[in-house]
Amino acid sequence: MANEMRSDIAKILELQAKDSRPLYRQLYDRLRIAILSGQLKPGAQLPSTRSLASELGISRNTVLLAYEQLLAEGYVDGKVGRGTTVAYVLPETFLATSNDLPILPQQQAVPSQLSQRGIILANNPFIPKPLLTPEGIQQRAFRVGMPALDAFPQELWAQLIAKRAKHSLPELLNYRHPAGYYPLREAIASHLVVARGVRCTAEQVIVVAGSQGAIDLAAQVLLDPGDDVWIEEPGYLGARGALEGAGANLFPVPVDTEGLDVAFGIAHCPQARLAYVTPSHQFPLGVTMSLPRRLALLEWALQKNAWLLEDDYDSEYRFAGRPLSAMQGLDLANRTIYIGTFSKVLFPALRLGYIVVAPDTVEAFITVQRLTKLHLPAFEQAVVADFIVEGHFTRHIRQMRTLYAKRRAILVKALKDALELEISAPDTGMHLVVWLPRGINDQLASQQAANHGVDVLPISLFSINEHRSGLMLGYATVNEQEIHEGVQRLAKALRSI
User: Fold this and answer.
1) Is 422 left (phi over 0), alpha (psi -120 to 50) or beta?
2) Radius of gyration, CA atoms only, the chain
3) What is the distance between the alpha carbons of residues 12 and 173, in angstroms, rounded to a whole number?
4) HEC profile for the chain?
5) For the packed helices 378-389 and 392-418, what is the interaxial angle rounded to 10 degrees?
6) Low-confidence ranges of the chain (pLDDT < 50)
7) Which of 404, 461, 473 is nearest to 433 (CA)?
């Protein structure tokens, strides 16, 4: 029976010699898809690394690497070399309620006609599926990445919409420039120069569909399939998905208290084509990259002719002192592509962001934008331009900074009163991290919290390699009462583990 199982697995895992990805990555992807699609059932025993290597005609180290990554991400259980089985609870189910489980296998079977890129993108856990409803993403404590929608100036926004609809609608109905509504590009450039220390003109600014659209556009323009790319470990899932979907070989570089470990990246993957970083407020750990690390990263990019993708997604919200200037402003060699978004500052449904590109790449980026997106809706861009030019944007940021600082302080105190856990709450951003005791699985803790009506994200979700267990809690979108109620529910969930 075991021999039959191994033969069936070997058929499922047939590798392609022409595939540009490393063999271990091919094997990992095919095993993961087989697990998610139900071809490999929960509890199924996988072949030993030695026998599978022999069956596929590859080295045992290749199989070891694939198994280790599956083990680290929670798709299999056990220790490599001592028997490996398919996990009963998969990472994709970590936020499902008891009524939702199991959500696999047949519903997520991947159609065989998809391309390799399509399969990779379709299986990227960017937004855990249990969070999605026909109306959008569920809203409850402590949703990460959500701004304070209750504090958004809705009446003012409605007035700006009505004004634009009355006076400018005819001129906005035609096709627009693919780089975006020019007055908005001018307003963005002016704001970035003053508030973020970015070196740019309006011509370098391209309006995109949020930071995710910016990452995808940059990957299409700057990367070839097979290029090595540094990503933060742990790091943003959306960037991982977009870069991997572009065919890049992702190389995880550890993040410590000073941000991305540049020396580690240089020592282990010096020839990378691009590095994706969140230096002002690292996602998900919240640390700020030190100036020596920033300078070292810029020096590496200059020497290796590499690109830096700086995602500055919520750095406007620093509660102590002036927000740190962007790394792009230090880059005299123009190797840094800067990304920002209005989704975290205004509201997510707006889906508008921007990318600031190097002067000699402007035409290339605009051409690709024209071919893939043509342009984004002009009406919303005009309203955002009015919001900035009339001074509402700066005022809104200032008010949210005060509000988020207050909500952060309330959450920290409530957590300290209810739980004896280590808290990492940097003086910037929209979320904090609660570190769990050794031996507590953060994905299990996250699932238990969801069962108690609280949404927290496990740090391991954002990690390729094994990482300390912790939970992310967003505080921007919850008021004082919701914070206290959410903490009590979280405490009850953690005590049940």
Assistant:
1) beta
2) 23
3) 51
4) CHHHHHHHHHHHCCCCCCCCCCHHHHHHHHHHHHHHHCCCCCCCEECCHHHHHHHHCCCHHHHHHHHHHHHHHCCEECCCCCCEEECCCCHHHCCCCCCCCCCCCHHHCCCCCCCHHHHHHHCCCCCCHHHEECCEECCCCCCCCCCCHHHCCHHHHHHHHHHHHHHCHHHHCCCCCCCCCHHHHHHHHHHHHHHCCCCCCHHHEEEECHHHHHHHHHHHHHCCCCCEEEEEECCCHHHHHHHHHCCCEEEEEEEECCEECHHHHHHHCCCCCEEEECCCCCCCCCCCCCHHHHHHHHHHHHHHCCEEEEECCCCCCECCCCCCCCHHHHCCCCCEEEEEECCCCCCHHHCCEEEECCHHHHHHHHHHHHHHCCCCCHHHHHHHHHHHHCCHHHHHHHHHHHHHHHHHHHHHHHHHHHCCCEEECCCECCEEEEECCCCCCHHHHHHHHHHCCCCCEEHHHHCCCCCCCEEEEECCCCCHHHHHHHHHHHHHHHHCC
5) 90
6) 1-6, 95-110, 129-130, 132, 134
7) 473
Between CA 348 and CA 145 the distance in angstroms is: 9
Give the model confidence (pLDDT) of 119-142 as tens digits: 766 666 555 544 545 455 566 889
Q: Which domains does the chain have, with CATH numbers?
A: 2-126 (1.10.10.10), 136-149+396-495 (3.90.1150.10), 173-393 (3.40.640.10)
Amino acid at 68: E
Q: Which pTM value belongs to this model? A: 0.74
Write the pLDDT tens digit of every residue in 189-210.
999 999 999 999 999 999 999 8
Predicted pLDDT of residue 137? 56
Q: What is the pLDDT of residue 95?
A: 43
> Which residues sit opposite 433 in a β-bridge?
424, 472
